[in-house]
Every structure is written in structure tokens, then in C-alpha cells.
């Protein structure tokens, strides 16, 4: 929701929001020069992050960060965007509490020893992503860092899914496994998500430059070939699943094939939402559903890939 509504800078500081533990509802609660105050704090954090990059030999990246013209832009207070971003952070805190409890229980009870490696990995990824969230705010949604923040959330989720799978293997009654298809769907959907984050950053750039529209529709001429791959890869993945289902034994499709049917259904909805983006210049409501449904595809594909480990391959 933060991404779809452009609320990433709803709170220009981190972990607080405009210096408060809960966002204000009116700019009357803020000092008159609040934009400059929080801009200076953010620029100081940008300098510290750039110096960290240089210590790791990433001199070019540090220079790009310093020269990014959008880093110097102050953020105007918007109560709706502030609360959307704040609620996102609350979910992050709840995730942190749950992950901490998870770590505590797997090390306290020997029955959960098989999960320990993946739980610790998920916990560490969660901490790294929380820190990266502060960098996203400090850099004023710097392209690349925003996408990394999004993709790390998937890595964290997959680690916890692996932990659950190690304790009790995922199982769908009657599901007929195919390792090539299931891992292919996972790799393919993650590629779609990765290309989608890049596509979204291109759309943001077109909007900033005032060239988002081309004859009333999305200006695809100024987007690169990766957008084309992002646009048509879900079609190929859905077609692959349909062809697999056609090769199954003659009985009618039932609950055993529901995960595959769900994958095809979500893919078709995604393709439809993509068309809406093109025809209606990426409306906010369509972005929201596109991100949610798009995020569910690699999660479903990862579930199917893990499911292969406890079923026979057809």
C-alpha cells in the first residue's frame, strides 16, 4: 500500500515520524521550518551511508547517492501518507516481535532444532531490512534501494517458510508433483517480481519527467526491453501450467490440482491489471492489487517447490 500510494516518504525520519512516535494529524503540530529541519537530518544520514559504501569499496555507488538530485528535496507533510507509512512500520515492529519469539522457542525446545538455521536467517534478514528501510527514507526513495528493500522482504519470508517446512512438510492432498515445473515457476515468478520493481521505478521516472502519458496511454516507448519481459513472462508461465494440466491423466481437474489452477487464475488477473496500468496510466487502486497479487505468485510457487520434497515426481 505504501508503494501504490507513494507514501514511502510519508515520514521523512526513522524510526519516528516527524520527530514523534505517532504521526501528527495537522502540520500545525510541527515547527514552521519543519521541512528544512528534517531535510538536514536526512542529509546527514545520507552522508554516513555514503561513507559506509566507500569503506566497502563502493565508491561509484556512494558518488551516485550524493549526486542524486532527489535526495535534497524536502518532504511536505501529508497526514494520509504519514499514517500509511506509519502503519507499515507498525507491521514491521510486529514482525520483529514475532520473529524474536520464534527464535526464542526454537532454541528453547529441542523438538524445533531442525528449524534453527532458517529461523535465524529469517530473523537476521528482518533486521537488515529494517535498517534498509531507514536508508530508503534517508535517500528519498533512491531507485535500486527501494527495490532491494522489497526483495529482501521476500527473502525473509522464504526463510521462515523453510523453517515451517522443516518442522512439518507442506502437503496438498493428491497433488501431483513436477520438480521442473515447480522450481521453474518459482524462478520465473521471482524474475517477474524483480523486473516489476524495475518497471515501477521507470514509471516513477517518467512521471517525474512529465512524460508518463503517450496519447492518453502509458508511454511504453521510453521504457526498456525489460518491461517487455515483465509484461509477457507471466503469460508464458501460465501457458506452461495449462500445458502441464492438459498432460495429466484423463480424470477431470479437482481439488488436487487447485494450486496450479490458483496460479493460472492469479496470473490472468495480473495480466488484466497490467493492461489497466497501460490504458489508464497506472491508477493507484490497480497498483495496490497488482503488487499484492504479484507478491502472492512467488510465495505460491515457493510453496509448490517445497511441496515437491515430500511427493513423488510425475
Quick recap:
Helices cover about 65% and strands about 0% of the residues. It is mostly helical.
Write the layout of secondary structure elements.
Layout (H helix, E strand, L loop, with lengths): L1 H4 L28 H22 L3 H9 L11 H30 L7 H23 L6 H23 L11 H30 L4 E2 L2 E2 L6 H23 L10 H23 L3 H24 L7
Antiparallel strand pairs: 1-2
Helix pairs in contact: 2-3, 4-5, 5-6, 6-7, 6-10, 7-8, 7-10, 8-9, 9-10
What labels would you give this structure?
314 residues; single chain; globular; 10 helices; 2 domains; two-stranded antiparallel sheet; mainly alpha
> For the largest beta sheet, what order do the strands appear in spatially?
1-2
Structural class: mainly alpha
- Contiguous low-pLDDT stretches (5 residues minimum) are none
Gyration radius over CA: 22 Å
Global shape:
globular
Descriptive overview:
It is built from ten helices and two strands. Strand 1 and strand 2 form a beta hairpin. The protein starts with a helix and ends in a 7-residue tail after the last helix. Strands 1-2 form a two-stranded antiparallel ribbon. The longest helix is centred in the first third of the chain and has 30 residues, at 79-108. The model has no long low-confidence stretch (mean pLDDT 88). The chain has helices at 2-5, 34-55, 59-67, 79-108, 116-138, 145-167, 179-208, 225-247, 258-280, 284-307; strands spanning 213-214, 217-218. With 314 residues, it is mostly helical. 67% of the residues lie in helices and 1% in strands. Helix 5 (116-138) packs antiparallel against helix 6 (145-167). The chain has two domains: 1-165, no CATH class; 169-314, no CATH class. The chain is globular, with a radius of gyration of 22 Å.
Amino acid at each position: 500500500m505504501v508503494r501504490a500510494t507513494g507514501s514511502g516518504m510519508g515520514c521523512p525520519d526513522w524510526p519516528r515520524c516527524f520527530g514523534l512516535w505517532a504521526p501528527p494529524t495537522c502540520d500545525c503540530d510541527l515547527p514552521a521550518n519543519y521541512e528544512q529541519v528534517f531535510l538536514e537530518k536526512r542529509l546527514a544520514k545520507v552522508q554516513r551511508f555514503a561513507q559506509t559504501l566507500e569503506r566497502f569499496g563502493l565508491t561509484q555507488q556512494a558518488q551516485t547517492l550524493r549526486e542524486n538530485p532527489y535526495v535534497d528535496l524536502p518532504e511536505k507533510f501529508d497526514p494520509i501518507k504519514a499514517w500509511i507509512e506509519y502503519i507499515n512500520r507498525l507491521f514491521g515492529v510486529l514482525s520483529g516481535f514475532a520473529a524474536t519469539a520464534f527464535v526464542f522457542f526454537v532454541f528453547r525446545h529441542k523438538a524445533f532444532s531442525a528449524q534453527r538455521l532458517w529461523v535465524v536467517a529469517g530473523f537476521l534478514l528482518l533486521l537488515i531490512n529494517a535498517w534498509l528501510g531507514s536508508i530508503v527514507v534517508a535517500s528519498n526513495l533512491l531507485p535500486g534501494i527501494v527495490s532491494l528493500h522489497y526483495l529482501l522482504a521476500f527473502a525473509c519470508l522464504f526463510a521462515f517458510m523453510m523453517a515451517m517446512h522443516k518442522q512439518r512438510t507442506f502437503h496438498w492432498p493428491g497433488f501431483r508433483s513436477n520438480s521442473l515445473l515447480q522450481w521453474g515457476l518459482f524462478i520465473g515468478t521471482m524474475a517477474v517480481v524483480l523486473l516489476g520493481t524495475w518497471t515501477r521505478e521507470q514509471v516513477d521516472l517518467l512521471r517525474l519527467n512529465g512524460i508518463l502519458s503517450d496519447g492518453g496511454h502509458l508511454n511504453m516507448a521510453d521504457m526498456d526491453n525489460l518491461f517487455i519481459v515483465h509484461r509477457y513472462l507471466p503469460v508464458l508461465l501460465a501457458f506452461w501450467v495449462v500445458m502441464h494440466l492438459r498432460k495429466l491423466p484423463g480424470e477431470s481437474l479437482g481439488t488436487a490440482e487447485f494450486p496450479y489452477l490458483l496460479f493460472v487464475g492469479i496470473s490472468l488477473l495480473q495480466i488484466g491489471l497490467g493492461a489497466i496500468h497501460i490504458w489508464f496510466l497506472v491508477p493507484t487502486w490497480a497498483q495496490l492489487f497488482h503488487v499484492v497479487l504479484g507478491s502472492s505468485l512467488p510465495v505460491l510457487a515457493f510453496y509448490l517447490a517445497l511441496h515437491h520434497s515430500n511427493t513423488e515426481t510425475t
